[in-house]
Amino acid sequence: MASLGVAPWFDLALAILATWRLCHLVAREDGPFDLILRLRLRAGSGMVARLLDCPYCLSLWVAAPIAAWLARDLVSGLLLWQAISAGSCLLTMAADGLAAGASPAAPMAPPLLGPVSRALGPERGR
After folding, report:
1. How far apart are CA 55 and CA 100, in angstroms?
2. Long-range Cβ contacts of 69-75 (<8 Å, 24+ apart)
3. What string of pLDDT tens digits covers the 126 residues of the chain?
4. Deepest of 58, 71, 87, 113, by most Cβ within 10 A of its Cβ?
5. pTM metric for this prediction
6. Buried b / exposed e across 93-119, counting CB within 10 Å, b at 16+?
7. How many CA atoms lie within 13 A of 110 on its CB side?
8. Which among 33, 35, 30, 34 has a CA at the least distance from the CA of 53?
């Protein structure tokens, strides 16, 4: 198990922030000298391109090696993997909400709530 030696919560927080930053860079920014933009353009429109455009998808792949590095054993590695990815997803949702003008204290509806409610119909989607 690797650690920065400060505290376990600090390692987890740092892993979440690093995962979010890398996912945001790849999915939402052009990067220095437009390197990330060129990478996304080169990826085309296939599965890899969709992966590079989705910070939620990317968080699973970015979090995996970080969790493996921090983990004591297989079970803690799997739990860390999901926790780091989940933390990154929460930061992405918060950043998207702030970018859209939502108040940080205002509750945000999950992205799929609208389509699910419409699919269920007015009487079942409430």
Report:
1. 17
2. 69/2, 70/1, 70/2, 70/3, 70/11, 70/12, 70/15, 71/1, 72/1
3. 677 667 889 999 999 999 999 999 999 999 899 999 999 889 888 888 888 889 999 999 999 999 999 999 999 999 999 999 999 999 999 998 888 876 655 555 555 444 444 444 455 444
4. 58
5. 0.73
6. eeeeeeeeeeeeeeeeeeeeeeeeeee
7. 6
8. 30
Residue type, 110: P
Task: Look up residue 95 and give its amino acid.
Answer: A
**Per-residue DSSP letters for 20-55?**
HHHHHHHHH---GGGHHHHHHHHHTTSHHHHHHH-H
